[in-house]
Amino acid sequence: MSWRKRASEWAQQWIFVGPGLAAFGLIVLVPFLLGFYYSFTEWNGLDMDKAVWIGFDNVERIMNDEKFWKSFWFTIRFTAVTVAAANALAFGLALLLTRPLKTRNALRTIFFLPNVIGGILLGFIWQFIFTKGFKTIGERTGWPLFELPWLGTPGTGFWGLVIVFVWQTAGYMMIIYIAAMVGVPKDLQEAAKIDGAGYWQTVRRVTLPLVMPAITVCLFLTTSNAFKMFDLNLSLTKGGPGTSTQSLAYNIYAEALVNNRYGLGTAKAMLFFLFVSVIAVTQVWLTKRKEVEA
């Protein structure tokens, strides 16, 4: 291959890849590297000349920050519950809506719609439902469930966030599961039935192993989204009562942009990034090992 042809191919590649790579570097890579630097400084986030290098002092502060660790454990509990609930609900809906129902296309659209609504707007809608709608239903029916202070106590506030997150997330995961289930070979399912397998045995022994790639994707998406949950936290509870329902993302936001301790907030964000990365990579590695080919 002549040097002119190689140069022409490189030029073509850079013409197509270059703008995207430059945008990625400017929007993602440069802020990340700057954030890594500022995590070792004491800075108010306003005057760049006043960023003072303090080394690992921010890490020491984080280790002794009770609110940070309270938010950390809240986020762990929230993620564990929502990932299990959202994927179980999405998988169940996918099983239902891959059956020959006349209204399955309409139902798919209805269940997917909550994902289209932005998190802040969705949070305010559900804040009205929890505070006004449930209260009215409770007064008229006398059902204790609807008379609970859904956003007023640490326990009910936690479950209120779980309900809204699962309601918003399950529809999107359902679409991924449906796409995977449609691709399961029919002859394998028919062979299982001929061998005497019931519906749930077929789901467990045939469908479930063959949709493991979709399960890997859905677990990754729900895990990362649950850890990063901020908009619902801001619009529904604002981390209250007190800081009992404060997620890690909200804690970082409050530290950096409310308390004007940008260096400490960035250090928390770096630790958060490392933790979520380890969890996500581990989850993908474990579920990838269970994938099979048809």
CATH level 4 superfamily: MetI-like
- Would you tell me the overall average pLDDT? 87
Pick out the low-confidence regions: none
Number of helices: 12
* Amount of beta strand: under 5%
CATH topology: MetI-like fold
What letter string, H or E per element, gives the SSE order?
Answer: HEEHHHHHHHHHHH
What is the 3D shape?
A: globular
What does the oligomeric state look like here? single chain
* Biggest β-sheet description: 2 strands, antiparallel
Roughly how many Å is the radius of gyration?
24 Å
Give the N-terminus to C-terminus distance in angstroms: 41 Å
- As for the number of domains, it is 1
Compute the number of strand runs.
2
* CATH hierarchy, class: Mainly Alpha
What's the arrangement of strands in the largest beta sheet? 1-2
Helix % is: over 70%
